[in-house]
């Protein structure tokens, strides 16, 4: 009997709905936009994302800017001394300095061999520095690498591509393969290169610390993390983490990524193809089943610097907040890197209309979308590399690990506001630790570049203002550095397409 009554009510409502009076009554109520899954108000999520950004992106005063500059000069001077040890590194080298450490996903490298460092507890600012051990910059055609022994997106590197002098310099950092015809092939070994690099940096820093100079940064830690050398410097009251990575630098574009150039992309018409494909790297990381002593991973960090220019600020804010959430949430087991999230963001830029992604008040939508996309990738164990789409970066995941992380993300999706609040509290705590350590340092009269300079050698205030301007006007941007080890006093560095 209930069904006919329900049907009758539906019928009467339908008939009444045809009248002009009822049409006016049934207009939707104007109210706050809600997230269907969590019932969170979008404006509340936007506000929390903005608050996180305020605590995560710190403003630097003149002294902090000068301390950053002092640490950078110290690192470049150290690398100049490394080059002079045995002449292995190129004399005129081009480094790529990235804002954020390896743990932040600025480069596609595995995190399972890295020590756990935390901002506030161990450092205040972090950077990644790609240092070419070898350069192959004289090619205009697509670069073909020896990928016969490797998983997709990875390669061995034969020194046959280089001259005899280069081979003789690096023989001790190679694995050797003798062929039937009597020839010998030297394969550049990422693990042996990392051994040499760590020993050389440690030796140089040991010598430098025997003759300390006024204003010189304090070397608080030098540690090898897999194939990465992590250096923490204390300058005044600041602690800076440098993840230094030995790489092989190429100009041009690898043949395995040629098909990617044929597709339409979000950056078309915003930057030129020449800017995007100016070069790539081999970084010391191997595939899940690869041989660590021989296999390198293709990295497009230089291209990513250019693509970043074309991403809206609201999407970048959502990405930073989402990254902070997953770094804490998905840290054990270490199967997901923030670099996976970066790739997902780039795919979203290709998929969604530019005018949609450009909306300033849509950070909440973008955050929820990134979480949904990452969860989808985990459930399907499929996350294509943005530059080599046929390379699935999650192929090695076990079903158990993938579902474990997917369930964790489901909890975030059910209450994103609470996870954002937790992330904000972590950022606040890190900032409080930094301030406390700065206060202790000042009370203990720790030296700083400004206090040690003294008298006529005190840095020009204009330099400090210029440095502060560079830091504050270019948050999150990456810097290419051109260095001459015989004259490290002259800064030649580029922020995107600007030279200083």
Describe the 3D structure:
- By secondary structure, this protein is α+β, with helices and mostly antiparallel strands.
- The protein is built from 17 helices and 13 strands.
- It has helices at residues 2-16, 20-25, 42-56, 62-86, 164-170, 190-210, 258-261, 273-276, 301-307, 313-329, 338-351, 354-357, 363-380, 399-414, 416-443, 449-453, 461-473, and strands at residues 93-99, 125-136, 154-155, 174-178, 184-188, 218-225, 228-235, 238-251, 279-283, 296-299, 479-483, 493-495, 498-499.
- Strands 1, 2, 3, 6, 7, 8, 9, 10, 11, 12 and 13 form an eleven-stranded mixed β-sheet that branches.
- Helix 4 (62-86) packs across helix 6, helix 10 (313-329) crosses helix 13 (363-380) and helix 14 crosses helix 15 (416-443).
- The longest helix has 28 residues, at 416-443.
- Mean pLDDT is 84; it is low at 1-24, 445-464 and 483-491.
Tell me briefly what this model is.
The protein is 44% helix and 16% strand.
Keywords:
single chain; 500 residues; alpha+beta; 11-stranded mixed β-sheet; two-stranded antiparallel ribbon; 13 strands; disordered N terminus
Spell out the blueprint of helices and strands.
Layout: H1 2-16, H2 20-25, H3 42-56, H4 62-86, E1 93-99, E2 125-136, E3 154-155, H5 164-170, E4 174-178, E5 184-188, H6 190-210, E6 218-225, E7 228-235, E8 238-251, H7 258-261, H8 273-276, E9 279-283, E10 296-299, H9 301-307, H10 313-329, H11 338-351, H12 354-357, H13 363-380, H14 399-414, H15 416-443, H16 449-453, H17 461-473, E11 479-483, E12 493-495, E13 498-499
Parallel strand pairs: 2-8
Antiparallel strand pairs: 1-2, 1-11, 3-10, 4-5, 6-7, 7-8, 8-9, 9-10, 11-12, 12-13
């Amino acid at each position: 009997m209930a069904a006919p009554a329900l049907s009758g009510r539906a019928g009467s409502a339908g008939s009444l709905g045809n009248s002009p009076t009822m049409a006016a009554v049934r207009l939707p109520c104007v109210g706050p936009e809600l997230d269907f899954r969590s019932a969170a108000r979008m404006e509340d999520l936007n506000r929390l994302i903005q608050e996180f950004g305020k605590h995560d992106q710190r403003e630097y005063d003149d002294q902090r800017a000068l301390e950053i500059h002092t640490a950078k000069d110290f690192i470049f001077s150290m690398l100049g001394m490394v080059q002079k040890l045995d002449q292995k590194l190129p004399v005129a080298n081009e480094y790529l300095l990235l804002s954020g450490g390896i743990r932040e996903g600025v480069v596609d490298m595995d995190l399972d061999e890295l020590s756990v460092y935390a901002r506030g507890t161990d450092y205040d600012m972090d950077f990644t520095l790609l240092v070419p051990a070898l350069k192959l910059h004289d090619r205009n055609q697509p670069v073909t690498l020896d990928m016969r022994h490797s998983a997709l997106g990875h390669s061995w590197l034969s020194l046959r591509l280089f001259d005899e002098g280069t081979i003789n310099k690096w023989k001790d950092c190679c694995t050797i393969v003798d062929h039937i015809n009597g020839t010998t092939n030297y394969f550049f070994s990422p693990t042996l290169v990392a051994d040499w690099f760590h020993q050389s940096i440690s030796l140089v820093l040991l010598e430098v610390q025997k003759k300390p100079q006024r204003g010189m940064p304090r070397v608080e830690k030098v540690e090898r993390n897999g194939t990465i050398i992590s250096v923490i410097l204390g300058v005044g009251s600041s602690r800076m983490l440098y993840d230094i990575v030995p790489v092989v630098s190429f100009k041009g574009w690898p043949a395995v990524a040629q098909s990617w150039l044929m597709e339409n992309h979000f950056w078309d018409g915003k930057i030129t193809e020449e800017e995007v494909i100016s070069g790539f790297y081999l970084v010391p990381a191997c595939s899940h089943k690869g041989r660590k002593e021989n296999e390198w991973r293709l990295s497009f960090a230089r291209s990513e610097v250019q693509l970043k220019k074309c991403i809206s600020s609201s999407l970048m804010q959502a990405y930073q907040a989402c990254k902070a959430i997953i770094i804490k949430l998905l840290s054990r087991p270490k199967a997901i890197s923030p670099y996976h999230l970066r790739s997902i963001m780039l795919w979203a830029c290709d998929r969604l209309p530019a005018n949609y992604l450009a909306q300033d008040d849509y950070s909440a939508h973008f955050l929820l979308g990134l979480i949904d996309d990452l969860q989808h990738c985990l459930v399907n164990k499929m996350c294509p590399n943005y530059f080599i789409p046929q390379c699935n970066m999650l192929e090695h995941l076990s079903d158990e690990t993938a579902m474990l992380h997917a369930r964790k993300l489901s909890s975030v999706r059910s209450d994103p506001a609470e996870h954002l609040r937790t992330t904000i509290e972590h950022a606040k705590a890190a900032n409080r630790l930094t301030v406390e350590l700065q206060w202790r340092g000042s009370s203990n009269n720790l030296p700083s570049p400004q206090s040690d300079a003294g008298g006529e050698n005190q840095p020009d205030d204009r330099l400090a203002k210029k440095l502060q301007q560079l830091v504050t006007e270019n948050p999150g941007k990456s810097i290419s550095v051109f260095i001459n080890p015989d004259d490290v006093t002259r800064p030649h560095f580029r922020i995107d397409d600007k030279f200083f």
